[in-house]
Each structure stands twice: as structure tokens, then as C-alpha cells.
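Can anyone check this?
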Amino acid sequence: MPFEPGTYAVKNVSGFQVRPLYLQVRDALLERIKSGKLKPGGILPSEIDLHRELGVSLGTLRKALGVLEAERIIVREPGRGTFVWSRQPGRTHSRFDPIRAADGGPLAGAVQTGRAKVGSPRDQERQALQLEAGEQIVRFHRVRTLGERPFAYELVCLPDRRFPGLAARAEIPSELEELAQAWGMLVARAEAKVRALPAPAAAAAALLMTEGAMVLSLERVAYDTDERPFELMTAYYHLQDQYCRLEMR
């Protein structure tokens, strides 16, 4: 459905100005992406076309596009246009994966994913994913290897209602953005806790370590563009030359 000029004008209620116009334009474009009208990898209309369609100034439009670009919802490619950001299958690097090789590059290891199962959430899972009473979750694990050496054991927990049919899938995407994209979601951000702790039995077995040996643990919660948590992952890493990279701004 096309935008109507003037629809997103800033309103004034009791002397207080609500959401700025450029953020209303950002929200309108984001809603079009989330609804599927603009698909991952698809090209946005030109700035001139959007400016006319939305009935806002080019400056306001460009500010809104700048916000979406900073959020990595879109990507602007000089000479080609502006595209909805798309996680491409087979890429070895994700902005939500902090583990790096000694040279700083991504780890192009193999991934083995266990069978997904639907079950009742534990208290920690319910709280992290903000689940309502009676909601179920989907759980599965992954093992990542470099050559013959396993270096990561990941436990993934997802709300079942947001990933319908996942438990019946023979193959599950191995990267967060690719997984979210397959179920029509966009990853806005993630939060993680990193600590050193003794490896639990399942992690030690998967990593070919002695139970209780110290590993690096990362607990990640991912959020969509509506600020709703949709993934809880707990990973255990047996690193040698590799390291965990944290970016702070």
C-alpha cells in the first residue's frame, strides 16, 4: 500500500511533541520491510520516489535512511541503490558472532546441529525470552569444529510460537541472522554476558575436554526490531589461538 503524503506529520499533544518526523518515516519504511513488501536483498525505491510518496523533505528522508543504515536494516551501495540488508547463506562472519581466529578473521569451521525439540521453558529461559504462561520453547544444540577439533558447543532456545515448524525441519540455519530471516524477522541487536567457568558435562563431552575444565562461556539474547527477545543462546568455547572480540562505542 503506498504512503499518503502528510500521513506521517509530527503531531503535537498537550504541548509535547511526539516521535520526530524522521523517526516516523523510519518506522513506516521498517513496517514495509517487516510486512514483506520490501524483502531482504530487495532494492528500495529511489530517494526521489520515496520523497514524493511520503510527502517529506529529502533531508528528513535521508535522516530516516541514515538511522536504518546505522541499525543495519538497509545498506546503501553507491552507484547501485539502497537495499534491504540480507544475511547471505554460507557467509562465515556475523556481527553477532564475537569469536575470531588469531589473525582477526572469521572462523570458517564446520557446524553440526542436533535435533530440535519442543518443551517447557526453564525459569531462566522464560525470563530471558519474556514468555507468557503456557508458552513453549524450541531447543537444540550445535557443535562447531575447526578441522578435527571442536571449539564451540552452543545451546539455543527459541519461542516456539515465533518459529512454527522449526522442530520438524531437517536443517536449521547455523547463523543468527540467517535463522531470523528464514522466519521473517530482522535482528536489531543482541546482548551477551561473557565469563570463564567450569565446563558442564554436555559441553565437556562435545568439546573433548575433562568435565569441569575451564572454558569461555557466552550467554546471548537477541532482539528483533520491536525490541522483543527471540533467541537465547549459551555457548561454551575451547579456544587456543582464537579469541573473543568485543566492540565498545
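Reply from J.R.: I decoded it. Residues 1-16 have pLDDT under 50 and may be disordered.
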